[in-house]
């Protein structure tokens, strides 16, 4: 792997992406709270004040733009893929992926491709991976940390999703060090969506190298696996055999879809892991409760998804004229759905600003909603619950390191903590 981008170090690539998606210092929760009280709809590009890209890429700012803040409105948009479409993403973020980018598909095409892919990610399939995931997390990571009595858990969090996905995808396990290269490439792709003109050319060049590097690496695996008879219960094996209404996936589609999974499945899970652990360690009394009753980990993850969603907004384009709160939104407009606001809408959630794992179950939008809802959410939850369980089992008297700053969840587009310093006995 002599390719220039091979030099890209994982931690450096991650912090470059964090810088890009962190945006201005504005407190996005507070800005949204004020906006909800002024008006449920904002006429204009609400996101621009945060200095982060949307997945419209260079199309951002080229169409009339509106933002929505209330739970019911965000749900109405995300659930209706016919009126609110995603095709524009193909020219924005999707331009880096050339190939099967399900996120940017609409209508029947999306429905068919999603039906092909979904079985590989449903709980019945995913839960079979649990023993393998538990073993990797415990033996390769947590047990090895034990003698140190302290760690920045984000170092583990950064490697966790890619190491797990690497195994589940069906890559040969003879060279596990490759997964770091894959992860760095995946991050360079996400980082390609740069909006700072001074950094844009270099970011795109790196993204281009990463797209090619990943394609070649995955093509080796996919072509070989097809030649060997497309066996196996892993993601690549399942995709090679997938069939729906007579449609199957060719090698190029399997390669490009698998490639798109690495960015989708990587740092999102890292961020959620960091937020779950931070809220677990900073909410009074919660650690003891969860330690004693591990079934609460599901509630912990669901409430974290509501309270601090990793992705703060989703953009759609209107396929016809629509109206919200007396404002007519013309066909061909961008609608910015402020997930972070809807998840704390006082009309939808009692004490919305309180982190409360005991609240009544209700959908929130941290994994999206409707036809594009995250296909990998069960994988992400499985990884995080396996990691939390391992940490609680193996690190005695775990607590935040009192000599270090308390981690703060921040970021205008992608939220998370940058460090998670902990100690144990
Ligand atoms: C905590 C971790 C994750 C978060 C917060 C997250 C978040 C999201 C969100 C918000 C969407 C909806 C996008 C939209 O409506 O435009 C989405 C879609 C998607 N996610 Fe995730 N995701 C996570 C983990 C994963 C994992 C582990 C995988 C793969 C195994 C994955 C694969 C996908 C794919 C393929 C889509 C597109 C689905 C479609 O367009 O039909 N994600 N994700």
TrEMBL record:
It comes from the Bacteria. It comes from Pseudomonas turukhanskensis. This is Cytochrome P450. PANTHER family: P450, PUTATIVE (EUROFUNG)-RELATED. Keywords: Heme, Iron, Metal-binding, Monooxygenase, Oxidoreductase. Belongs to the cytochrome P450 family. CDD domains: P450_pinF1-like (cd20629). GO terms for molecular function: heme binding; iron ion binding; monooxygenase activity; oxidoreductase activity, acting on paired donors, with incorporation or reduction of molecular oxygen. The keyword Iron applies.
């Amino acid at each position: 792997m002599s390719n220039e981008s091979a030099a890209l170090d994982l931690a450096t690539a991650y912090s470059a992406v964090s810088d890009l998606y962190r945006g201005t210092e504005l407190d996005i929760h507070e800005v949204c709270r004020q906006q909800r009280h002024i008006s449920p709809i904002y006429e204009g590009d609400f996101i621009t004040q945060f200095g982060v890209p949307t997945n419209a890429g260079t199309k951002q700012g080229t169409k009339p733009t509106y933002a929505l803040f209330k739970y019911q409105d965000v749900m109405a948009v995300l659930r209706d893929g016919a009126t609110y479409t995603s095709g524009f993403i193909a020219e924005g973020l999707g331009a880096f992926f050339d190939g099967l980018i399900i996120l940017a598909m609409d209508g029947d095409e999306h429905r068919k491709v999603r039906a092909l892919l979904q079985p590989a990610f449903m709980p019945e399939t995913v839960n079979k991976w649990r023993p393998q995931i538990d073993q990797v997390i415990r033996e390769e990571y947590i047990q090895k940390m034990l003698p140190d009595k302290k760690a920045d858990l984000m170092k583990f969090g950064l490697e966790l999703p890619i190491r797990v996905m690497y195994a589940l995808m069906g890559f040969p396990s003879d060279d596990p060090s490759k997964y770091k290269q894959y992860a760095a490439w995946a991050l360079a792709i996400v980082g390609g969506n740069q909006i700072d003109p001074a950094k844009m050319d270099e970011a795109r060049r790196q993204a281009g190298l990463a797209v090619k590097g990943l394609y070649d690496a995955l093509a080796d695996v996919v072509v070989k696996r097809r030649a060997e008879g497309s066996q196996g219960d892993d993601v690549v094996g399942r995709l090679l055999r997938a069939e729906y209404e007579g449609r199957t996936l060719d090698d190029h589609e399997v390669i490009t879809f698998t490639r798109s999974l690495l960015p989708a499945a990587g740092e999102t899970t890292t961020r959620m892991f960091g937020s779950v652990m931070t809220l677990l360690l900073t909410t009074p009394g919660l650690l003891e409760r969860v330690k004693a009753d591990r079934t609460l980990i599901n509630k912990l993850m669901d409430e974290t998804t509501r309270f601090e969603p990793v992705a703060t907004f989703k953009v759609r384009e209107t396929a016809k004229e629509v109206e919200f709160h007396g404002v007519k939104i013309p066909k061909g407009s961008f609608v910015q759905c402020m997930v972070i606001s809807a998840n704390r809408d006082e009309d939808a959630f009692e004490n919305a600003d309180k982190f409360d794992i005991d609240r009544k179950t209700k959908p929130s939008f941290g994994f999206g909603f409707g036809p594009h809802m995250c296909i990998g959410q069960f994988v992400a939850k499985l990884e995080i619950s396996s990691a939390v369980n391992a940490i609680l089992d193996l690190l005695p008297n775990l607590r935040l390191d009192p000599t270090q700053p308390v981690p703060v969840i921040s970021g205008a587009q992608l939220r998370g903590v940058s460090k998670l310093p902990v100690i144990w006995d």
